[in-house]
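Structure tokens please, single chain.
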Amino acid sequence: MFTSITGFAAVILYLIGFSYLIIKLLKEPLFNTAMLKSLAAGAITLHGLSTIQLLFVADGLDLSLFRIFVLIAFVINLVVFISGRKKPLHSMYLLLFPISALSLIAALETPSTKPVALMSVYIQGHIIISILAYSLLAVAALHALLTGYQNWQLKHKKQNFLMRTFPPLQTMEDFLFELILAGEVMLTLSLVSGFLYYDDLFDQKLLHKVTLSIVAWLVYAVLLWGRHSRGWRGIKAISWSWVGFVAILMGYVGSKIVLEFILS
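Here you go.
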């Protein structure tokens, strides 16, 4: 009952925040974001409470797909909210708020699609690190889209209401690579902890996920090397970041869909 109350309250705040943001951007692109930050803080807090209740159930840890989506959405919102204290990143809420609301509704209204897991503290730590890595890289992918859009607008000498809310392109690119570096570090820890704590990381059920995670790690490593050594930026950087994220997405979400919905 408590989970439903906090979950749907978060959904309402997300939708109010989304509507408020749209109205303000259309009327006054450089508006004071204090009210929006308050709505975001309330929604994210309630979202976090719901996430705990959805994941940690009486018999163990519920790692079904929609519950994981709720956790990832929470982490992404929290990262953007904290980073947004120093950078004008509120335009990212145009995608994050409705996605978060949908993820909560899906988790609250859909029965668990995976048996509750009883696992050691080490495996739970590995899973949390993995989810943090996926979340950071998902934020990076979203930010890459916005950076690419801004780059396209500047090249074509256009400026719409959304463009006026963005920080300078250099700031956008610097933040993108900060996210990618943090995500790569967490992905490295995820792979290392997986090799340490799983008896057979290349088991058939894990092989698809592990292989694509290694591919993603290599892609992001090349991208960070290219940025540091060759000064990669613009479309090349955005393209590489999305190649890495697609590998992560196929490895994690794809494997969960196959295991939970097709094979089951």
